[in-house]
Amino acid sequence: MSEGMNSALAAVLDTAMGKVFVKGIRTDHPGVITQQREAMINPHVRPLAPAMLWHLDSVAGWDVLGFEYVEGRHPDYTPGSADLPVVVEAMRAVADLPCPDLPLKDARQRWAAYFDQPAAAEMLAGNTLLHTDYNPANMLIPADGTARMIDWAWPTRGTAWIDPCCLLVRLVAAGHTVAQAETWARRSDAWHTAPDASLDAFALASARMWDDIASADPQPWKTRMATAAREWAGSRLAGVLR
């Protein structure tokens, strides 16, 4: 497979029982934890996510996951795209999933370092299951027009309005103005549960997080995300969107 950012192995196997998508990473790579998280959460996010068929957790130094193969395309996030309502509906479907009693990432811990006061991260507490990585490469749209959420490397427990914020930054990076991106985020019921002050604080925390990510590894897409997150934070803190 030509796409994908984190797996050393990504391929479609054409087997006697049909096609299977496989992804893998060396067991001595720090990123192997993300595959273990994905294996852990998969039974709880079907059928929104393709079913994991098997997990080889230590074979010849590799951790490999096998998934139901889904024929589809990645959504277009650019302004005016007909895919955007489908994307928002998929985000709403994630929020409707029960949050399982598993050792998920906690939103307060994930973002605490990016608040002026770590205690301020308590605003992120909640019991909603979050995907948090709305890269368009992490979503497939099959021929039936519905969306399937893939790559559950960062399943997180927290307040429901975090996922709309994560999508919003992706939309700005894809060419939306902040106002346009917030219009799409408002289509999520969860967005309306967030006080303005919380959105302001999270926008600033997101900008700091993406700045850290881009500084550590300045790939073009990470730099675009950092720019988009700063644009959102700047708009909110300037009161443009009030």
Automatic annotation (TrEMBL):
The superkingdom of the source organism is Bacteria
**Record InterPro entries:** Kinase-like_dom_sf (IPR011009)
What is the name of this protein? Aminoglycoside phosphotransferase
Gene source species: Kibdelosporangium persicum
